[in-house]
């Protein structure tokens, strides 16, 4: 399978195509893809997703995809690397958490983001702003970052959410959504707290998750949290005390023990 590599922190491209010329591929960066006009099929990780004007997709590293164009399609691509997102992570706070949440929710990537009319209009305008900055993405990377966060915020609030009544789904995606949203609040990730949100018992929650994912829910939470922590450390923009506080850990020594245990595993 072909792999595309991007070395620039952020790139923007806008083009029209009547035929898709790229093979099935993956890459080392992230991609927001907006369909301004057109119709066809987007194949993501083997899943076939019909698209039309206004469709939005998000593709992460290692995911593979290609398009089958049925009607000439106008694309806007916003492509960025980990280095780009980490550069702004400490300064963007909660909004960066939204991006991390979106990045991790791979299951959602495979289905696209159906948007309500008002959100679709806003996303369209944000992508138009992004496209207007494509002539010099490097000089405009600060401006592009704010548009990226705006797009992310809208996509996240259109992702599958937990229901508010007794009909809450036990669907795995809803569990991922809950974990990713509450990763900064350890008390909300205890089985006895999570289970009522899915209208099931704590014991069944653990059994169901392990059967579907192949690891315990605690192991998944620890792996996800430790990945985010290591990203914070690698970015070099936060001291360990700040990272520990962000994730609700008692102190820096607690953080160090987590990383040592994770490294030893």
TrEMBL record:
User: What GO annotations for molecular function exist for this entry?
Assistant: DNA-binding transcription factor activity; sequence-specific DNA binding
* Swiss-Prot/TrEMBL keywords: DNA-binding
Name of the featured protein: HTH araC/xylS-type domain-containing protein
Q: Which Pfam families does the entry link to?
A: AraC_binding, HTH_18
Q: Where is the HTH araC/xylS-type domain?
A: 173-265
InterPro entries with a match to the protein in the record: AraC-bd, HTH_AraC, RmlC-like_jellyroll, RmlC_Cupin_sf
Q: Please name the SMART domains in this protein's record.
A: HTH_ARAC
Establish whether keyword DNA repair is in the entry.
no
Q: Does the keyword Repressor apply?
A: no
